[in-house]
Amino acid sequence: MMRAFLLHFVFSLFLLSMHNISYARDTITSTQVLKDGDTIVSSGGIFKMGFFSPTDSQNRYVGIWYNQIPNRTVVWVANRDTPLTNTSSVVLKIVNNPGRLALVDDGNNDANIYWQTNTSRLISNPVAKLLDSGNLVVMDANDDSPENLLWQSFDHPTDTLLPGMKLGTNFVTGLNTTLSAWKSESNPGMGEYKLYIDPAGNPQLILRKGRKEVLRSGPWNGLEWGGFPGMKKGIGEMLVIFNRSEVSYSYQIYNSSIIRAVLSNAGNLEIKVWLEYGRGEWNNVHSVPIDVCDEYKHCGAYGSCDYNKSPVCGCLDKFLPKDPGAWGRVDFSGGCVRKTPLKKNCQNGSSDVFLKYSGVKLPDTRFSTFNTSMNLQECRQVCLKNCSCMAYSSIDISNGENGCLLWFGDLADIKVLRVDGQDLYIRMASSDLDYPSSSKGKKPKLIKLTSSILGGILVLSLSLTLVIILYKRKMKEIQLKLKWEEEQTLFEVSTITRVTHNFSLNNKIGEGGYGPVYKGVLDDGKEIAVKRLSKTSKQGLVEFKNEVNSIAKLQHRNLVNLLGWCIQGEEKMLIYEYMPNKSLDSYIFDNRRSALLDWPKRFNIINGIARELLYLHQDSRLKIIHRDLKASNILLDINMDPKISDFGLARSIEFNETGANTNRVAGTIGYMSPEYAGHGIFSIKSDVFSFGVLVLEIVGGKRNRGFSHHQDHYENLLGHAWKLYRDSRLVELIDEHLDEPCDFPQIQRSIHVGLLCVQHCPEDRPTMPSIVQMLANNVELPIAKEPGFFTESVVQIKANSSPNKEISCPINEVTISLPR
């Protein structure tokens, strides 16, 4: 009896030891899985990975935390937005060909995928390994070199930046690494706060809450982020890389300290160090924001925020409140203006000077340029000669004052720093500086000079008065022609010229049939996009008037916002809100940037466009047919939400009508429906056809036109997609960057809806209300018929007046206007 008991005891110890060995491994191989209750530990025992539940939550997640810290501190979460409620059959495993790490329902033959890595390379022996750095990597077991990693969690952080992890953008691979806070202490889902590096101008850290910027680090000054003095405390070295390949920030530690940077769900960026001795707790080494002066643009342009003063906002020396009444109501957002405005014609800056402001956080650098090889004196000369340059400073203070940083446009988000502030040199009118009075012997000359100037001013004033009277009459005529139904802002040409740096190439962000588009920043800091009519454009006042009168009456979250207009002489400009991610075509047709659009983002774009077309066709005050819906006219905001733009060719019809006829075919080859291109008949079904083309382009990542071009035959994307649909091979149409099996049913359904939209006969195409329902619900879809422009040697537009004339169109996508 005793012998049997001992044998059972020894066998139990053996099983327990085997179980503990499985717990101690640091790798998941193709023959192993990680179940709820199991963990893996890095080889040095620093980090552990497994299933966990946050405080006050029953949901289960897979995460990484510190192994030797008693209070579990999670630094990374795999399925943060797909919580598990039942993990009885869910495992984390390696899926071969390609080698992926996936969280799947093992009891359902991996049918349900809750999370997976986005690896696509085929390897013979994929494994997942937890490193002592806290990095989870997927690699080839036969080749563990860093450059051959298939995937790593350091490229996909959640709320924590660990030593060695990079924050920023790799311009070669398109990888953009950001921190995003948890929704709450009990929910690791992606919250509303996001920290990232903005590479525009001189790069800096930006913290957003939703779409609103709430915090800015200031530029890197060679030692630390200028607006975050003290952030480097406790960190061995902060590393910042700015070059053509990448913009990134990371840090390293040189001792055995356990340090992490975390973005809290309250919107605080905190540097924490683990205090092992005493109570054993995390100690906050540094945290931002510190006070209200860290709030982005709290005191407006040329305002200075000093927390030790009351009120905290004041104007910089030689500046006055732009709206004194608002400042009296403790509303500082309007900012300040110079006591003496700068001359519009600065004559290479000969009449201007620079005033030094010391001990400040340098202003927003997104509209700046820099040169690391210049000294401060050279920097001053460059700024002085450029009338658009408003300030300059050193870019590197690690060893004296080196490099040159130049600002263009108004200066915003300036804070007084008691420690580690920098010097800023701001452009001023020379009369604003206090000079010694002239000697008595020079007074007669001064009087004569003054008299001459005053006489010249009088003549000039009379001339200007006459010009202004004529100009105002012209403006009234134009305003009557435009028949505004809503109040819009009339911008001066001089204002638009200034905020776009005289329409410089650096500010040019695109060009269409109407003309070039430029980026600008208004005095209040609002970013704008200026569409300027080109002298060579075939469009003009008709399209200008049409776009304004159409878009001014429309309001929708997926419609670009028209801020105002500018018309003077030959100049005709439309001013829109600025879309930081530019147009859809710059993503889906670019092999590098298309990798940034996963399927959820693309499906959100498709749905956003569909909802806007539904609004235009049915719910707006006017019934609008866009007539030029295409990828380049879909703009993407900061959250990658789509906004339809360019209403220059749009037509409004009565609500009891569905379409009309035109003697002037206008649109873009590849997106025009057959009945419109061939006979000038346009309707809501014309927009539906264009939408269908867009859907197929978004899914396939290829242009409809130019998809395949042979010597004797041209097959567009529509024909190719329909053949694959007919042969049940739709998977071959999907963009190579969308290799996600769990999304395939939704992708396949989207392709089907797209093919229904591009059917040859308008009556066969669904309406936008039906399309929105088809995309949102699993309703049964009808069989798609052959599309319009199925296959052809060239796309032809036949004019009724010249039935034998055929116009061959090139491959590029340019809006055209042809008489019929």
Radius of gyration over all CA atoms, rounded: 32 Å
Count of individual helical segments: 13
Quickly give the CATH architecture of the largest domain. Orthogonal Bundle
Report the β-strand fraction as a percent range.
25-35%
| Assembly state (oligomeric) | single chain
Number of strands: 52
Structural features, described:
With 820 residues, the protein is α+β, with helices and mostly antiparallel strands. The chain folds into five domains: 19-154, Agglutinin, subunit A (Orthogonal Prism); 157-290, Agglutinin, subunit A; 303-432, Hepatocyte Growth Factor (3-Layer(bba) Sandwich), CATH 3.50.4.10; 476-578, Phosphorylase Kinase, domain 1 (2-Layer Sandwich); 583-819, Orthogonal Bundle (Transferase(Phosphotransferase), domain 1), CATH 1.10.510. The protein is 22% helix and 30% strand. The protein contains 13 helices and 52 strands. Strand 10 (126-130) and strand 11 form a beta hairpin. Helix 8 packs antiparallel against helix 10 (684-700). The longest helix has 40 residues, at 443-482. The radius of gyration is 32 Å and the shape is flat. Residues 1-24, 435-447, 476-487, 709-713, 791-812 and 816-820 have low confidence and may be disordered.
